[in-house]
Amino acid sequence: MMLIFLSTLRMSTPLLFAAIGGMFCERSGVINIALEGFMLFGAFFAAAFTIATGNPWLGLAGALAGGAAFGLLYGLFVIQWRINQVVAGTAFNFLAMGLIPFALKILYGSTGASPSIPIEQRFQIFPVFGAWGITAFAWFVLRYTPYGLWLSFAGENPEALDAAGISVRGVRYSAVMIGSALAAAGGASLSIFLSSGYARNMSAGRGFMALAALIFGKWRPIPAALACLFFAFMEALQISAQNITELPIPAEFIQCLPYLATMIALAGFVGSSKPPKQLGNAFPR
Amino acid sequence: MIKLLSILLSVFTLNAGAAPLKVALVLDKGGKDDKSFNAAAFAGATKAQSELGITLKAVETTDDTAVENTMRSFAGKDFDLIIGIGFAQAEALRKAATAFPAKHFAIVDADVNLPNVRSLLFEEHQGSYLVGALSAMASKTGKIGFIGGMDVPLIRRFQMGFVAGVKKVNPKAMLSTNYVGVTSDSWNNPAKSKELALTQYGAGTDVIFAAAGASNSGVFDAAEEKKVFVIGVDSNQNWVKPGRVLTSMLKRVDLAVYAAIQDSIKGKFTAGAERFGLKNHGVDFAVDQYNQALITPEMQKKLEALKAEIIAGKIVVPDYYKLNGKK
Question: What is the CATH topology of the domain spanning B2-123+253-276?
Fold first, then answer.
């Protein structure tokens, strides 16, 4: 039981970071299906900086900075040049898959993986607390700060925000950068906490799971975090269930349980999940 | 002396006269740096490159559906031999080889029955049986684990042989089994495989055989944290975590790839299935300076005895392919 609990906490960590990051971005009205790509960038930057400095904190800082930088680039495409956000997001996912092997080749002479990081140079537990800290912080920001209010207005009613003299684009840029930095932190938790270095496409669909959790949680931090926890719990349960060899169920079925549970939950329990009104619509100013 | 001279001469003339053989190596999703299956294939090809003077082009597939086009484009250019690594490329290679009957093809882990294709097949169950026996000897708790990458017949074959080996030494051993997943992402998900390993180790397992491609690193990390044993796969992975890797189940993809290239150069390329088992050192267990201290002479003696019995046919290791009606 304890094992499942710990396993759930560990596996929810990258999802939490990415889902909360996605929330910042989408609440401001910018679709982010590039969470997967930002996680990969984060995993890569974290590994590269940790290898270079021997310090996971600098690795995490590198991931945050790198994530924010690519967030800015994403912002340029979708906010400045108003490119379709789904198309741009997809392109960013592919960019991550192409650019990282290229960078790995230059840095380490290998396209598939970074060298492995010794255990002393990896996080032991911090990212788990970090993820929940970020969740609480996001909840606080949305509820009690002016920035939270601006964020909601940028996504729901940008004209009103504009009329109040606040730059919609400014808010959206900041939200996209915070969002991609957090998603990158999720990736960092993969490469310097849950495993020991960058491995090719190591996010393995977690960005999309985080996106599902975000929708499942109706674009709100606490419900989204609970959704992440639920996904991670289903995964942990699946790991334990797989171990019962006498089970008359094929492993394939157990493997699909988390996804099945998600669909049922989305169809039945949460009711209608309404996105921010202006999600996906560019604003001229 | 004359024989030696003639060999030297033939090598010389081949190198000087004809243009060097152009070989394309199409690697699986794990990529050449997975320290395991693909790394072995790549090592074989690069050895051929430096020793036989071939022109080598190695590509990694990111998308299963792109394999056929990749192979066709190599065959359409002036490549002489195209080698596909991994069962996932079987269909693509079959189509490409049918379209280019004059080119030579080779594939690892799949049986493609065409007049211009050499299928390189390994008796994984035999090697797995030996490392299974070793893990039962090394385990103190009597609990032994298996972690596979993608849940496919090939890995089931590893598992079945491994379990048989464990049971041979310790019939009462408790076995737990996990697979990382059912898609090809499973070869590249170390975070998940580490979680699987931590769960198994947490339940008292003290040796895990990991056959999960690049996901193996997660199992290795877990073994390091929990100070227990892990068994590597395909390449010799003993060096990855010295002292924690009990042994590695070697699958000498490098030898098979090298031989295919060499035969092609000498004009001795033959199509059909070529099997690599314990007998011809195609599969084996690895003992080197990193794990010597973990394996007592007694253990090694027992293993050598089991190996001899398998080669002599006295022990028949259960083969998942045969039991499930696949070649």
Answer: Rossmann fold (3.40.50)
CB contact under 8 A, A3 and B182: no
Question: What was the pLDDT predicted at A125?
Answer: 92
Q: Which of B252, B90, B192 is nearest to A195 (CA)?
A: B192
Q: Complex ipTM, two decimals?
A: 0.85
DSSP A200: T
CA distance linking residue B283 with residue B154, whole number of Å: 14
Contacts from B298-303 at CB under 8 Å and sequence distance 24+?
B299/B134, B299/B137, B299/B138, B302/B133, B302/B137, B303/B130, B303/B133, B303/B134
Q: How far apart are CA A84 and CA A26, in angstroms?
A: 14
Decide if B145 contacts B197 (C-beta within 8 A).
Answer: yes
pLDDT at B326 over 70: no
Residue A195 has its nearest CB partner, among B31, B178, B221, at B221
The answer to whether residue B8 neighbours chain A at the CB level (below 8 Å) is no
Q: Are the CB atoms for A28 and A85 separated by under 8 Å?
A: no
Mutate to test the interface with B, among A108, A122, A192, A195 (most CBs of B within 10 A): A195
B303, amino acid identity:
L
From chain A, the residues in CB contact with B162 under 8 A are none
**Angstrom distance (rounded) from CA A25 to CA A202:** 23
Amino acid letter for position B326: K
Instruction: Give the residue extent of every domain in chain B.
Output: 2-123+253-276, 124-250+282-323
- Asked whether the beta carbons of residue A196 and residue B217 sit closer than 8 angstroms, the reply is yes
Confidence of residue B324 (pLDDT cuts 50, 70, 90): confident
CB count in 10 Å sphere of residue B13? 10
Contact B32 A112 (CB under 8 A): yes
A240 touches B: beta carbon within 8 Å: yes
Within 10 angstroms of residue B267's Cβ, the number of other Cβ atoms is: 8
Interchain contact B225–A (C-beta under 8 A) = yes
pLDDT at A255 over 70: no
Residue-level length of chain B: 327
CATH topology of domain B124-250+282-323: Rossmann fold (3.40.50)
Q: The CATH number of A2-269 is which of 1.10.620, 3.40.50, 2.60.120, 1.10.3470?
A: 1.10.3470
Q: How many alpha carbons lie under 13 Å from residue B219 in its C-beta half-sphere? A: 34
B218 at A interface, C-beta within 8 A: yes
Which of A113, A242, A256 is opposite residue B214, by nearest beta carbon?
A: A113
- pLDDT tens-place string over residues B54-78: 999 999 887 778 899 999 999 999 9
* B274, B121 Cβ separation under 8 angstroms: yes
Residue ranges of alpha helices (H) inside chain B are 2-17, 37-52, 67-76, 90-99, 124-138, 153-169, 190-202, 216-226, 253-265, 297-312, 320-323
Question: Is residue B166 within 8 Å of residue B175, measured between CB atoms?
Answer: yes
Percentages helix, strand, coil for chain B (3-state, rounded to 5) are: 50, 20, 30
What is the per-residue pLDDT across B122-171, written as a single tens digit (0 to 9) for each?
999 999 999 999 999 999 999 999 999 998 999 999 999 999 999 999 99
Domain boundaries defined on chain A: 2-269
Distance of CA A203 to the CA centre of its chain: 10
> CB atoms < 10 A from the CB of A252, how many?
11
